[in-house]
Write a structure and sequence with these properties.
- The chain is of the alpha/beta class.
- It has one domain: Aldolase class I (TIM Barrel), CATH 3.20.20.70.
- About 35% of the residues lie in helices and about 25% in strands.
- It is built from 5 helices and 7 strands.
- The chain has a 7-stranded parallel β-sheet, with helices on one face.
- Helix 3 links the parallel strand 4 and strand 5.
- The longest helix is centred in the C-terminal third of the chain and has 10 residues.
- The radius of gyration is 14 Å and the shape is globular.
- The chain starts with a strand and ends in a 5-residue tail after the last strand.
Length: about 130
């Protein structure tokens, strides 16, 4: 299980992106994060073309499948659909990692028991 943003573990920073111009201002090791796949599709295509690592916030199975096919590195999924999307990802052997945002360390074990690929502490997302 990947743990992103824990103070003991060095992790990339996730930067919420709403414009193409913001990409040029991010550090090389940052992960671009798009709030909405449909509203961000042009910028996502640009990030993919440039070979940049990116994640997409996901609230539906359809959006998860589309983001995977767009080569998203991470799917930041809502907690209530995390297990369902993780099962689909395992069935289709996604390279994309399924992660859930958490507020504190106590939540790590819960998602580990569910088999979720990883968690990210909310304060890591800028």
């Amino acid at each position: 299980m990947k743990i992103i943003g824990h103070p003991w573990i060095q992790s990339p920073q996730f930067i919420t992106i709403i414009s193409k111009e913001q990409i040029a201002q991010t550090q090389a090791n940052s992960i671009l994060l798009f709030e909405n796949i449909r509203a961000s599709i042009k910028i996502i295509h640009y990030a993919k073309k440039e070979g940049l690592a990116f994640g997409v916030k996901i609230s539906t199975i359809n959006d998860a499948l589309l983001a995977y096919n767009l080569s998203a590195t991470y799917l930041l999924v809502e907690a209530q659909i995390a297990l369902e999307i993780q099962n689909i990802a395992q069935h289709y052997l996604f390279d994309t990692q399924i992660i859930v945002a958490i507020k504190d360390e106590e939540e790590i074990a819960q998602y580990a028991k569910m088999g979720i690929d990883g968690v990210i502490f909310q304060q890591t997302i800028k």
